[in-house]
Amino acid sequence: MSAARKQILTRVRSALGRGELDKAQLAELRDRIARHPRHIEPAFSEPQRQRFRQKLEAAEASFVELDTIAGAAAEIERYLEACGVAKRVVTSGDKLLHAIEWPASIELQPWVAGSDDKVGLTAAYCGIAETGTLLLVSGEQNPTSLNFLPDYHIVVLRVEQLLPRMEDAWDSLRTSFTQMPRTVNFISGPSKTADVEQTVEYGAHGPRCLHVILVG
């Protein structure tokens, strides 16, 4: 712990009228953190896939379901044509995307997105049905810039990657990773703000459009 941080925490303890925690109190707190207790969770009766779609669309994202990954390239091409966007896609190196057979009409640019790139394609670690949220993790094949720099963000995930609630997503991450990824992003729709005169503007802090392709 740095000297500055220790000084700040000492002031906080002093303001609260207590000293440092003893060993028993520290052990109790560390045990609680390690157990990740779950609290009251809202119930929902609709199927996970239905709720996920409803919540995504309520957040102004677009959504499509495909039977197999074989139809992903055609769907992406359709989407880009509908948006009037050039068919140049910056894509992550996720293994799910390797299964897509790309037509010559789509130009692929791997890995790193820049400020001039319009379309980013990534896979998601999972989808959270309760809130219609995508969870994406950073890694060598998945730079976080793909999630935020392009104006159009296309995300692919499989049906079996849908989880009921946020707590399930964190439990899955703890199981899958011995060490947490450097960045974990939760995305629940395109970037938008109503800070100026309560008028909604899209693309304020990230993509102005989010398109989700659910496979399976």
Write a structural description:
There is one protein chain. The chain is α/β, with parallel strands linked by helices and 216 residues long. It has a single domain (48-215), classed as 3-Layer(aba) Sandwich (Rossmann fold), CATH 3.40.50. It has seven helices and twelve strands. The chain starts with a helix and ends with a strand.
Task: Please provide a brief summary of the model.
The protein is of the alpha/beta class. 32% of the residues lie in helices and 23% in strands.
Features:
Rossmann fold; 12 strands; 4-stranded mixed β-sheet; 32% helix; 6-stranded parallel β-sheet; 216 residues; alpha/beta
Q: Could you say what the CATH topology is called?
A: Rossmann fold
Output the CATH homologous superfamily: NagB/RpiA/CoA transferase-like
Question: How is the main sheet built?
Answer: 6 strands, parallel
Question: Which percent range fits the helix content?
Answer: 25-40%
Number of helices: 7
What gyration radius follows from the Cα positions, in whole Å?
21 Å
Topology of helices and strands:
Blueprint: H1 3-16, H2 23-35, H3 48-58, E1 62-66, H4 72-83, E2 88-91, H5 95-98, E3 107-110, E4 119-123, E5 126-128, E6 133-137, H6 145-148, E7 152-158, E8 162-163, H7 166-176, E9 184-187, E10 192-193, E11 201-202, E12 209-215
Parallel strand pairs: 1-12, 2-3, 2-4, 4-7, 5-8, 7-12
Antiparallel strand pairs: 5-6, 6-9, 10-11
